[in-house]
Design goal:
heterodimer, A: alpha+beta, Ubiquitin-like (UB roll), Fumarate Reductase Iron-sulfur Protein, Chain B, domain 2, five-stranded mixed beta sheet, two-stranded antiparallel ribbon, 7 strands, 31% helix, B: alpha+beta, five-stranded antiparallel beta sheet, globular
Chain lengths: 250, 653
């Protein structure tokens, strides 16, 4: 336990693009003697330190909480959204998952509805517009009934939670060959649609969010279930077919 | 540099309602002036920050009919760090029929804050707590439920009653998504204009009244002006002054620090909370500390090898050679002693060379006995996701070897001074949530942060901001108003001072330290001299060292202008500049508060048993610091009166 942590060398092939209208391409950088107790994002911090000291432009990547819950981070690691470890965002992906001498190819999410901003950073404001289209219960502050006047079974509440746990990272879109946001939309519909509070608006909500998904340029569900495999919160893709039935609700 | 002794008179008017605290909020609210819906439509309110306090305030003010503008440095409001709160939210509902009541939550909050918060504010918080739960349930927040369908509660942080509502270990996320969805509903209705990727750089004041902010756009770097009839800061706490904390990497003090520099008083900056159960730091490139929920202390036993320098793996150390130091020192409470005591005892032993893990900064939290007692499956189901997170981060299995934990900065009770109506000493500037100093006193109870953020945002600010606007009509100001131009110029010159024009280098800046490197040094210093335990000599040394870091920052900082796209290095530098200023103020505040109370432990002020010694005769007040350009800050005092409760001392031995 007190032994020195293992250290590895990594080669990073990174997508570099200074801005949406700038030419992009891959750049190769080497990182040496990295402690395997670091996360992949901490390795990128070190890369940026290296770049800054060399007078070069640092790599842009999204991050914040670094504990897997804010949903800021996310990019492809060797073609896989959030990398090889299941149920894990890149901020929680530790270097002990890799071997000394490995080459990692890091690319941004690629989807028409998630336009690239710089390097590994993309614009996910489409997700905000999907929620704005109907992902809420229409209640104003101050006129709610007493909380226990709405009874919700334990399992029902737990199932609603399992879909409400989505962090909005967009790995589902990035891993879908149609760049569909179906899992994201279905998760929100399932969160609210499994609870009594969500019933009055469920049909309208489902139609509005699905229409918004098309308007943003997300594709239809590809039925490959890659979204479920990539989801750090392990939300089931079964909810996508459930979502279809919501469209017919009043 | 000795701070002036606490004065008896104060220019700080907390605007507390007169009469008994129990009905104070009700009386206050009934007397607050109102504004007609037609007139609300013409008024613009600006909210900085999109966490629980900011999102809930923005949504509620928009529902009431105001035009709301919301700025956040995140790419989406849903990323705000409230999202990471694990434990739960308190409310005095007595659903567990265990004798809880508004009065009891009020008393626990005042006592938990070690009698350094206002009674009236704490009482209001306890009164509002139930309505928060009602509203969040109506929004569809999936709180945990009993089989019969009623809401489940648990006891949290040593409370004697079960009043904590929770959604697995992601209560903050679920409450934030509720507020975020309410906010997006108002965006869709056209009543909220949302400006993401904007970081506040300066506050705009016209004739001493807050009227807007200048923000820097995170992608283009452009400086933008936002003006309004009232400004609400809900920008969170400042635990990242310690560099490594449980806060998100981008959490910062810049919004409140800029307001302080413009004249808003900063209250109790030295009141910062350290959480005893976090995963310890390892490599110097580690960027944050991760909290392991305190609930683990219910089943885990905390220990260290009895002999210093014992490097055997934990399983190889036989029982007689282990020191279960919390159980030894606190036979009654054992491993469940309050956060500050658990943290202090762990630190003392680690400083004495008894710690385990990298750098000797860690203690064991051992689940072995609980596993023997309740079975492996029971422990796994109780703490499954926590244990998985621990093994993902450390690569160790906590079911076969003890967890290593160490205290980490977690929450800041201090913040901008606000009166009972949440207005700062700058008229028209309201401060909500962790950004203000209210209700938690010198220490915060577990599961009370979410309660306070939402009380401020959903219920208090919408009433008091309306009252301010009703009584103080403000004319529109244009973006080219002299005050706006001055604020933009101030922001420009700050950036220019840090970053040379493109292609040029400041002298020394080609070899100097990066902002991250200086921030790491600041953090190491602050945790040493102004963390779990503070002494006059350490704090004085801290002041000298912070000044040295400020000088290095001004003269040697390595920063270049690459011209295109996002510039996180500049963002880090701007935030660090503000943290350096705040660090100086924290040290002054800790030095001036010659007592131990709550999370503030001064080594000179302890009992023979090593417990905190509070000094109500000299320090039963809020210290509010006022910035004076070119001079040391001035320490003002707001005396605290206790009419409903009598201050008592804690006893745990």
């Amino acid at each position: 336990m007190d032994a020195a942590p293992a250290r590895i060398n990594l080669t990073l092939r990174l997508w570099r693009q200074a801005g949406p209208d700038q030419p992009g391409g891959f750049e190769t950088h080497r990182l040496e003697q990295l402690s395997t107790d670091l996360s992949l994002l901490e390795a990128l911090d070190r890369l940026n330190d290296q770049l800054l000291r060399a007078g070069e432009r640092p790599l842009s990547f999204e991050h914040d909480c670094r504990e897997g819950i804010c949903g800021s981070c996310g990019f492809l690691v060797n073609g896989q959204a959030h990398g090889p470890q299941a149920a894990t965002t890149v901020c929680q992906l530790y270097l002990r998952q890799f071997r000394d001498g490995d080459t990692l190819v890091l690319e941004p999410w690629r989807a028409r509805a998630l336009p690239l901003l710089a390097d590994l950073t993309v614009d996910r404001s489409a997700f905000d517009r999907l929620i704005a289209a109907g992902g809420y219960c229409s209640v104003n502050t101050g006129n709610a009934p007493e909380a226990n006047s709405i009874l919700i079974g334990r399992d029902q509440a737990a199932s609603a939670f399992d879909t409400a746990t989505c962090i909005g990272c967009a790995a589902c879109v990035a891993s879908c060959r149609n760049a569909s946001a179906s899992l994201f939309v279905a998760a929100k519909l399932a969160h609210l649609g499994q609870l009594p509070q969500g019933q009055p608006e469920q049909g309208r909500r489902a139609r509005a969010m699905v229409a918004q998904m098309a308007a943003e340029g997300f594709g239809g569900c590809s039925s490959h279930l890659e979204c479920e495999a990539a989801c750090p919160q392990q939300i089931s893709a079964d909810w996508i077919s459930w979502m279809r039935r919501q469209l017919a609700r009043p | 540099m000795a701070a002036p002794l606490p004065g008896l008179t104060s220019p700080l008017d907390p605007r507390l309602p007169s009469g008994p605290v129990a009905s104070a909020w009700q009386r206050c609210r009934e007397e607050l002036p109102l504004i007609s819906p037609v007139n609300k439509r013409r008024l613009r309110v600006l909210v900085v920050g999109s966490g629980l306090a900011g999102a809930s305030a923005a949504a509620t003010l928009a529902e009431q009919g105001y035009q709301v503008q919301l700025v956040t440095y995140h790419d989406s409001p849903r990323r705000a760090h409230s999202v990471a709160a694990q434990g739960g939210i308190n409310a005095a509902r007595n659903y567990a029929s265990d004798g809880d009541s508004v009065e009891r939550l009020f008393r626990d909050t005042v006592k938990g804050g070690d009698f350094r918060a206002r009674e009236a504010g704490c009482h209001r918080l306890a009164e509002i707590s139930g309505a928060i739960i009602d509203h969040c349930v109506a929004q569809g927040v999936p709180f945990a439920r009993e089989y019969g369908g009623t809401l489940a509660n648990r006891s949290f942080g040593g409370a004697l009653v079960s009043r904590t509502f929770y959604a697995r270990g992601q209560t903050g996320q679920q409450l934030l998504l509720g507020a975020y969805q309410a906010l997006m509903r108002q965006v869709a209705a056209g009543r909220v204009s949302m400006f993401c990727r904007r970081e506040m750089m300066e506050l705009i004041c016209v004739d001493g009244v807050a009227r807007g902010v200048v923000c820097r756009h995170g992608l283009s770097g452009a400086l933008e002006t936002f003006t309004a009839q009232a400004v609400l800061l809900a920008s969170g706490g400042y635990a990242n002054v310690f560099y490594l904390s449980t806060n998100a990497v981008k959490s910062n003090a810049s919004a409140i620090w800029r307001a302080y520099r413009q004249g808003a008083c900063f209250a109790n900056p030295c009141f910062t909370q350290i959480h005893p159960t976090c995963i310890p730091a390892g490599d110097s490139w580690q960027s944050k500390l991760t909290l392991m929920s305190e609930s683990l202390r219910n089943d885990g036993r905390v220990w260290l090898p009895a002999a210093a320098g014992d490097s055997r793996p934990p399983q190889a150390i036989p029982e007689p050679e282990r020191d279960y130091f919390l159980e030894r020192q606190y036979p009654t409470y054992g491993n469940m002693v309050p956060r500050d005591l658990a943290s202090r005892r762990a630190r003392e032993l680690c400083l004495a060379g008894r710690g385990v893990g990298p750098g000797g900064r860690g203690v064991y939290l051992d689940l072995a006995e609980a596993i023997r007692r309740d079975g492996r499956e029971a422990i796994e189901s109780r703490y499954g996701n926590l244990l998985a997170m621990y093994s993902r981060i450390t690569g160790e299995d906590p079911l076969t070897s003890p967890l290593r934990i160490y205290p980490a900065p977690h929450y800041t009770m201090g913040g901008l001074w606000v009166d009972y109506q949440l207005m700062s000493t700058i008229p028209g500037l309201f401060v909500l949530g962790e950004a203000n100093f209210s209700e938690h006193g010198a220490n915060r109870l577990g599961a009370s942060a979410l309660m306070q953020g939402l009380a401020d945002g959903y219920f208090i600010a919408p009433a008091t901001v309306t009252a301010w606007l009703a009584g103080h009509p403000q004319p529109e100001i244009a973006a080219d108003h002299p005050a706006c131009r001055a604020a933009v110029a101030a922001a420009q010159s700050r950036i220019a001072a840090l970053r040379p024009p493109r292609g040029a280098l400041r002298p020394g800046s080609s070899t100097g330290p990066t902002a991250m490197e200086l921030h790491r040094q600041l953090g190491l210093l602050m945790i040493e001299v102004c963390g779990i335990s503070r002494s006059a000599s350490g704090l004085r040394r801290g002041l000298v060292e912070v000044e040295r870091l400020q000088q290095r920052f001004r003269e040697e900082l390595r920063l270049a202008d690459h011209g295109l796209g996002p510039d996180e290095a500049l963002e880090r530098a701007l935030r660090l500049e503000d943290f350096l200023g705040l660090a100086d103020l924290m040290l002054r505040d800790a030095l001036a508060r010659e007592e131990s109370c709550g999370a503030h432990f001064r080594e000179e002020h302890q009992t023979e048993e090593g417990e905190a010694r509070r000094d109500d005769a000299r320090f039963a007040h809020i210290a509010a610091w006022r910035h004076r350009p070119g001079q040391p800050p001035e320490r003002l005092c707001e005396p605290l009166q206790f009419t409903a409760l009598t201050p008592s001392q804690r006893h745990y031995r």
